[in-house]
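Incident log, support desk, overnight shift.

02:14 A customer reports that sequence design results differ from what the structure should imply. Their input is reproduced verbatim below. On-call engineer (initials T.W.) acknowledged and began investigating.
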């Protein structure tokens, strides 16, 4: 899917997100994430633009793919190591009535939007499972989505679940040049309690480890 952005070049270059804020301290448990990945060249930061400009560009692209989806948050970075800034987008829509969640819940899709050289943008991959619904984090957390981290051609998506007893998940993907795809790099979690915030890091089992370097982003089904 391509979109012409000839007159919206500054918007694409924005490095930022909509309605994003610094995660709470308890959401930043010490699990390896994209921030721990090897250093790589970073796309240059942009000149002036606004989050609204970028959201409008992304909404036009995404709604051609799925009309009910609307951009909730995005993060910019060179995720395929070609020297051009790309975008990871969290989009959402009302959950279907048969999803078994609350009536106001929003179901999420994460889209990897690749910059193929202005004026071309392309949705390279999507995943409906890597971020769960806005009410799926449990009574204490509510919305489990904690943020997106990009470093070089590694990126992580973080989620938090629970109330007093919480679980912080980090799933990291890495761009594979040979396969021209983003593959699972690591899937881990930290379990901890409000009564003991030291945490207990847990790898997500041997099954997850066997999938490292093999499972494409689009096929990742979580494990929460």
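02:41 Re-run completed on a clean worker. Output:
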């Amino acid at each position: 899917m391509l979109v012409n952005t000839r007159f919206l070049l500054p918007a694409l270059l924005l490095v930022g997100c909509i309605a994003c804020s610094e995660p709470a301290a308890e959401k930043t448990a010490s699990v390896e994430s994209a921030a721990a990945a090897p250093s790589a060249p970073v796309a240059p930061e942009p000149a002036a633009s606004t989050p609204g400009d970028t959201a409008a560009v992304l909404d036009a692209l995404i709604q051609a793919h799925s009309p009910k989806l609307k951009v909730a948050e995005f993060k910019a970075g060179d995720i395929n190591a070609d020297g051009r800034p790309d975008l990871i987008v969290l989009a959402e829509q009302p959950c279907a009535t048969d999803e078994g969640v609350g009536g106001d819940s929003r179901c999420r899709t994460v889209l990897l939007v690749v910059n193929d050289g202005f004026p071309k943008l392309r949705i390279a991959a999507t995943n409906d499972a890597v971020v769960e619904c806005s009410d799926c984090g449990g009574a204490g957390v509510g919305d489990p989505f904690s943020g997106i981290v990009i470093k070089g051609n590694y990126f992580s998506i973080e989620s938090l679940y629970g109330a007093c007893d919480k679980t912080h998940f980090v799933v990291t993907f890495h761009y594979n040049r040979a396969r021209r795809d983003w593959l699972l790099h690591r899937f881990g979690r930290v379990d901890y309690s409000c009564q003991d915030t030291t945490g207990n890091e847990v790898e997500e089992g041997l099954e997850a480890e066997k999938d490292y370097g093999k499972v494409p982003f689009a096929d990742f089904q979580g494990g929460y």
